Amino acid sequence: MSNEANIRQFLSEVKRKKKEIDNFRRTKMPVHAGRIAKDHFQENFRKGGFINNGLHKWRKSKRELSGGKSAASQYGTLLSGIDHLFQSIRYTPMDGKVVVENNLPYASIHNWGGTINPTVTPKMRKFAWAKFYANGGKDNPKAPDAQFWKGLALTKKQRLTIHMPQRQFIGESKELNDKLRDKLDSELEKIMFK
Prior knowledge:
Helix content: 55-70%
Number of helices: 8
């Protein structure tokens, strides 16, 4: 085989690898990146904090600090029996990129913190009375949880002011970037050396 034939074969192989890498970058890597990111962000819930240059623990919720006996008191911060916030993290792979998001209406206030002012509705008052009776009610009206719910049910306020501390679970993370870089490197190695 002549040098010219070797060069043509080499250039053909380079062209094929380039096409394979471009296909990987545009179609497969966004799927891998989305899965890795979703797993990483869900790990934040399991560990009770945001992982970026180490674990930054979330401030404990009043529900956890009250030491109540209810099932809700036993769950960690931002967790519940149905883990709706945890399970609502989605990723959408696109051409050469991926979007990872949580579209729940209350996700951003938990992720970034802030102040909200919900309107006190009759439905909210009815719910508060139900929680009052569930947390002691007539049998133990002095229980801290019962007092809280009674106060909410009887409030004269039309709007509440609720300060939410930041409990970030989605965002830039050094550890996530490292995982993505490792995955990219290993996949490119597979393509280059197969």
